[in-house]
Amino acid sequence: SRTVTRNADGVVTVGGRSVTELAEEFGTPAYFLDESDFRARCRAWRDAFGPEADVFYAGKAFLSRAIVRWLKEEDLNLDVCSGGELATALDAGMPAERIALHGNNKSTEEITRAVEAGVGRIVLDSFQEIVRVAHIAERLGKRQRVQIRVTVGVEAHTHEFIATAHEDQKFGLALAGGQAAEAVRRALKLDGLELVGIHSHIGSQIFDMAGFEVSARRVVQLLAEVRDEHGVELPEIDLGGGLGIAYTSEDDPREPHEIATALRTIVTRECAAAGLAVPRISVEPGRAIVGPTAFTLYEVGTVKELPGLRTYVSVDGGMSDNIRTALYDAEYSVALVSRSSTAEPMQVRVVGKHCESGDIVVRDAFLPSDVAPGDLLAVPATGAYCRSMASNYNHALRPPVVAVPEDGKARVIVRRETEEDLLRLDVG
Ligand code: LLP
């Protein structure tokens, strides 16, 4: 990120503070998040999409009160997918009309809370939910703005677990076979619902624009079918999140303006062909906003050389603060940041401290061959889906998130868990 540099002694500094100082003040492992980078990325998305579109930050990537305040100040909206995320958003003062609620199995409590608060939209994901949300809204004397989530049937080129637009998965209602059209039919009949649009999210960590383009085209085709059948032009489409980021130097991500241009071009062209007014477009980037803004700082505890096999470098965290390597074979890079070294680089495996051999942070890393206990290692691009997917496995204490503004006045935005936190829940 922009505020990271290396000083003359080879020590990396962040917003003017050396990582050694940061490790002393905040401990390790810890996530350090560059606030100005986060805000700049929010603005890049807003500017790329312009005033005739809405950018919803996907809170699942990482959410805290500070994040909500920054989003509010940078004029972004917020996508939440659980009662917990909704509570955080409302607590930190995000206006309800700027919140969208997602989920394939929202509870009655979650829906009720969202409708009561007056969220801007609920994204409907099943036939049961269409009826459920309508009943709750009617009971509360409200008309809830909703979108219908559809699966457009494209195979996004990403890991199977994070691809969501092919038909055989749990999200959405399929365009193929007419379930999506049937969902529209049912939603339009219910007084508790104001159907405002169609939603499609094709997956995550995607570099290729083609999937987004197919998705946009098929969603517009559905708008045309809805107009032909019901005489209604739905005013909004949401094309989800999913833009990939660079985890290693091999990744070549697209910029927000590239996806904005691609989507606008397709939607405008398809609407013109179908004789539709261009709907308001929204998108839901999570990873692309927060992913690159943070790195994890670890301390090396042991270095174990297995002759003829490999060297294992163990750090003081692991799968409890970054499950992505174990879960998706995700690739990360790692650097020695507490000193410079002229030693030859060697291939190592950076692992965590958990009781599990799959507890890998970086599968194949190059570190100076004199890497030793006490060294600090940084793993970049851990802003998305690391703290938010962190666990207490082995009763690990989840690490803090420290915001580092440009002036270097680092401050904790999510504190480190303590043993007291762990034991507080254990009431047996
Ligand atoms: N909108 C919807 C409806 C989503 O389901 C998601 C992600 C997003 C937006 C944001 O996608 P993004 O722009 O962050 O790619 N845990 C996985 C990612 C799962 C994403 C689930 N949905 C990972 O660590 O890669």
From TrEMBL:
Superkingdom of this protein's organism: Bacteria
GO biological process terms, semicolon-separated: lysine biosynthetic process via diaminopimelate
Database matches in InterPro entries: Ala_racemase/Decarboxylase_C (IPR009006), DAP_deCOOHase_LysA (IPR002986), De-COase2_C (IPR022643), De-COase2_CS (IPR022657), De-COase2_N (IPR022644), Orn/DAP/Arg_de-COase (IPR000183), PLP-binding_barrel (IPR029066)
Active site, renumbered: 355 (proton donor)
UniProt-annotated binding residues for substrate: 287, 324, 328, 356, 385
Domain Orn/DAP/Arg decarboxylase 2 C-terminal span(s) in chain numbering: 296-383
Name of the protein this chain belongs to: Diaminopimelate decarboxylase
Source organism of this protein record: Streptomyces olivoverticillatus
Lineage of source species: Bacteria, Bacillati, Actinomycetota, Actinomycetes, Kitasatosporales
